[in-house]
Amino acid sequence: xxxxxxxxMDRPHIGxxxxxxxxxxLDSGHLPQGPVVKxxxxxxxxxxxxxxxxxxxxxxxxxxxxxxxxxxxxxEEVIIPPFSFVATATSVLSARAKPVFVDIxxxxxxxxxxxxxxxxxxxxxxxxxxxxxxHPADMSAIQAxxxxxxxxxxxxxAQAHGAEIDGQxxxxxxxxxFSLYASKNMMSGEGGMVxxxxxxxxxKARMVRNHGMHQRYYHEIVGFNFRLTxxxxxxxxxxxxRLTEWNAQRRANAQYYNAHLEGVTVPxxxxxxxxxxHQYTITLPEGYDRDALKQELNTRGIGAQVYYPxxxxxxxxxxxxxxxxxxTCHHGFNRECPDLPVTINLTYRVLSLPVxxxxxxxxxxxxxxxxxxxITEMA
Length: 379
What we know:
Elements: H1 16-28, H2 35-48, E1 52-56, H3 59-69, E2 77-80, H4 87-94, E3 98-101, E4 124-127, H5 139-148, E5 152-156, E6 164-165, E7 168-169, E8 175-179, E9 192-196, H6 199-208, E10 213-215, E11 218-219, H7 230-240, H8 243-260, E12 273-274, E13 280-283, H9 290-299, H10 341-347, E14 350-353, H11 361-378
Parallel strand pairs: 2-3, 2-4, 4-5, 5-8
Antiparallel strand pairs: 1-9, 6-7, 6-12, 8-9, 10-11, 13-14
Helix pairs in contact: 1-7, 2-7, 3-4, 3-6
């Protein structure tokens, strides 16, 4: 069967503006981190309403930079959700710290603040909530917990460019790490950004991303080459000019889906929150064959995807670090999974549909009609 449409999850936009900006950098002969990176940082800080934005080579290195700059030491603990891309955990491991997993809320897919304090020990150094799929975590509640226990607060905002809580953009509660990978709401092909309002933290972050240097060839702390190039930053500068427009279209697509999809739980945005709608993720009823639905949608030209089919705490790399509990692991490992029931349940029920800003009206209608038809057939 030849599908009527071919609708991918992501359609990275590279227009004439991006091409011309890259050519200007190439013609300048200055390719490493330089004035264009600085321009990009200034624009990003303005978008996030923060004093500082520090560009890095990826979203993962942005989070690692934030953790190290916040003073996380080897073997200290960082509280994170298990329902996220693996970089949430590997950034903690890169800082030589230990990820501690706390379950998520079923409606937002974000870390559940009511369960955080039970995970705090005398080795806990930081809390790193994820704004998953573009919906902000409950930052007011999490901030209160961090302040009460004197913990660093680092937002994993990799998917949340332009998301807000009561008009305040994410990225300014403590420290934050954004991704600029090609699939994100705005991108530079590859790259990341750390944001903060703290001057001391910003200075440490700049040192971490540049071999621990404040003065050239004088290495005061352990650092790395996490720098972004002017070539990548040139793309990001142009992308940043259209983030608001693109997010508005994502929101319109999501609202259309919410109004027309049937038989599934559609994602909602909490009062006072603005989602970036990086992904539009439905939850299937119990007992539905999610993977079969995904495969059928793919066959029909709809690039539905599962984010994420295996929770971080069940990943093979952490097999020897997982504690045991009474909940049998669903993934066939010898050890048992930590007791994270909401995460385990949703892992088998979530499915993301294309919501990128370049979907046409006809494609949007086709997605709704096809999902509704298949859901009815599977009932």
